[in-house]
Write a structure and sequence with these properties.
- This protein is α/β, with parallel strands linked by helices.
- The chain has two domains: 4-192, no CATH class; 222-273, no CATH class.
- It has helices at 11-18, 24-35, 50-55, 86-101, 157-162, 170-179, 182-191, 193-207, 209-246, 251-258, 262-273; strands at 42-44, 64-68, 72-79, 113-120, 131-133, 136-138, 141-147, 150-156.
- The strands form two sheets. Strands 1-2-3-4-8-5 form a six-stranded mixed sheet, sandwiched between helices. Strands 6-7 form a two-stranded antiparallel ribbon.
- Strand 2 (64-68) and strand 3 form a beta hairpin.
């Protein structure tokens, strides 16, 4: 069960637990712990049933979108791979969400709030804190916030693991569950009834044959997809190496420029000579 496929760092399981009707209390618990504010109404906009997850198993974004307290849309994304664009993508999707949810004829000051929550299994920022949130202020008056209806959160799980965790903190309890820290999960279950219920529901989900089938199909698609990208990149580097060798670059120079091994370049060079 320690396999990454069957933990909450698998986005299929993450959406199945936090993005299903009847499980609002789990999402509410996570968001209240993160925002440190009470949530008195929560509505999951993008609900994920087994049937919906089965349709989405071939890639695509599987974010959770919820509306809280009648006026704030919260988008939650779990990101395992660093694709080098999370900050730009977050801004784009926040702006699009704000536009999509605005009503025709609505006054600008009546726009809903948008909060983007990114849970990352890689380090993004150069700071030590594992939770970072954005505030947009005037440069010479940092006390004055200018953009008040958009906020971004970045939660970096690798930094969470390195920290001396206080398991009495509700956010740390939820992150322990997401990060699959079994020792901390056991302690969190004693302190937090909702965490205990979430862990029990998670165990049922990952034991479900249909759910395991969906997870395996998604994993196969991702492996094929990323292997295809890697193969295309290798082919492109080999073509560049072929051109560099043809114009007189040495194997050592070409290796430095393309990252290909000298052994691989020697094979390419023999093709030129033949």
């Amino acid at each position: 069960m320690n396999n990454l496929l069957y933990t909450l760092k698998n986005d299929i399981l993450f959406k199945a637990l936090f993005g299903r009707e009847g499980n609002e209390k789990y999402l509410k618990g996570l968001l209240e712990a993160l925002f440190q504010l009470p949530i008195y109404i929560i509505e999951i906009i993008t609900e994920y049933t087994l049937e919906q997850l089965a349709k989405e198993e071939k890639g695509g974004r599987l974010d959770i979108l919820a509306k809280i307290n009648d006026s704030t849309y919260v988008n939650i994304e779990l990101q395992i791979r660093d694709e080098k664009n999370i900050e730009e993508r977050t801004l784009y999707y926040a702006s699009r969400l704000l536009t999509e949810k605005s009503q025709k004829g609505e006054r600008y000051e009546e726009l809903d709030n948008v909060v983007m929550v990114n849970i990352l299994d890689y380090e993004l920022l150069e700071f030590n804190e594992f939770v970072s949130d954005t505030v947009t202020v005037i440069n010479k008056h940092r006390e004055y916030e200018t953009i008040k209806n958009q906020k971004f959160y970045y939660i970096e799980l690798p930094k969470f693991r390195k920290t001396n965790i206080d398991i009495n903190d509700p956010l740390n309890q939820w992150l322990a569950l997401i990060d699959n820290n079994e020792e901390m999960i056991k302690m969190a279950m004693v302190k937090n009834k909702t965490i205990k219920e979430a862990k029990e529901d998670l165990d049922k989900l990952r034991a479900d044959p249909k759910m395991r089938g969906i997870i395996k199909l998604r994993d196969k698609w991702e492996r094929d997809y990323y292997n295809g990208i890697a193969c295309a990149e290798d082919n492109a580097r080999e073509e560049i190496a072929l051109k560099l060798l043809k114009i007189g670059n040495t194997i050592e120079q070409t290796s430095m420029l393309t990252g290909l091994s000298k052994e691989k370049l020697q094979k390419i060079n023999r093709k030129i000579e033949n």
